[in-house]
Design brief:
Number of helices: 4
Helix content: 25-40%
Structural class: alpha+beta
Strand content: 25-35%
Largest sheet: 5 strands, antiparallel
Bound molecules: 2-amino-4-trifluoromethylsulfanyl-butyric acid, cobalt (II) ion
Oligomer: single chain
Shape: globular
Length: 248
């Protein structure tokens, strides 16, 4: 659909984003040792179904679950299973809904019990890079300004940015134009306009930026060096008076 959303469409996205944020809050209370990633998937479906939303990932390019759960060296697109979370793990929870035909997308990385200092640092750096990038989503700035801001935050802390996966526009499809890389040059790329709705989603590794795609399950993305990876994502609307985070 069109890259520029109307005020009425953004009003629906705002409602959907609110449901999604509440679903994430609900899942966050369940993350602890002994919980399986299938448990989280089930909780999510129950929560959103009760609110009139559906899981936008289910069936997307044949994806068989409703959320993505990526543990430790898994970067994104980990598939829920009977695997139990263990003390010291970090888990990226990536969720998306379709509500009144419109998609919203968000991800958070959680600590399972007590985690190492480097793991906590990685989570903080990734979250902070997203928080720093959000004020950049103003009409007149560029896609490159968003990526440059994230890149600067991450590289200043000696972490690395995954480059082969990017953020994206959202609307009636899970992924729409434009692509939103987590690296870039200030002033470069498409100019941001009022009415754009973007999912910004830094994926950050402690070690090398190189990743591998699981050939058996067809989905899971892992760091090539098996170092830890974190992921945060919000859906953000660019309004006349600046960015509005739809998923908080
Ligand atoms: N959440 C992913 C994104 O942020 C999309 C996952 S699609 C799935 O872009 F099919 F893998 F679930
Ligand atoms: Co996304």
């Amino acid at each position: 659909m069109a890259i520029i959303k109307t005020k009425a469409e953004i009003a629906i996205l705002r409602e959907g984003g609110h449901i999604l944020a509440e679903a994430m809050q609900h899942l966050s209370t369940a993350v602890r040792p002994g919980v399986t990633t299938n448990d989280l998937d089930k909780m999510f479906v129950e929560f959103i179904t009760a609110r009139g939303a559906t899981a936008s990932f289910l069936g997307y390019h044949g994806y068989a679950k409703s959320i993505c759960t990526s543990i430790n060296e898994e970067v994104v697109h980990g598939i829920p299973s009977d695997r139990m979370l263990q003390e010291g793990d970090i888990i990226g929870v990536d969720i998306g809904i379709r509500y009144k035909k419109f998609c919203t997308d968000m991800a958070r990385t959680f600590a399972v019990g007590k985690i190492s200092m480097p793991a906590q640092h990685l989570i903080d750096v990734t979250r902070n890079s997203l928080d720093e990038a959000i004020p950049v989503l103003r009409a007149g700035n560029t896609i490159g300004d968003i990526g440059a801001t994230i890149q600067q935050c991450v590289e200043a802390e000696k972490c690395s940015i995954v480059r082969v996966l990017v953020g994206h526009g959202v609307g009636q499809s899970v992924h729409e134009e434009p692509q939103v890389p987590n690296y870039g040059k200030r002033g470069k790329g498409r100019v941001l306009e009022v009415g754009m709705v973007l999912a910004v989603e830094p994926m950050v590794n402690i070690g090398s930026s190189k990743v591998e795609f699981d050939e058996d399950d067809g989905w899971t993305v892992r760091t090539a060096d098996r170092s830890l990876s974190a992921h945060f994502e919000d859906t953000i609307a660019i309004l006349e008076d600046g960015p509005e985070i739809l998923t908080r």
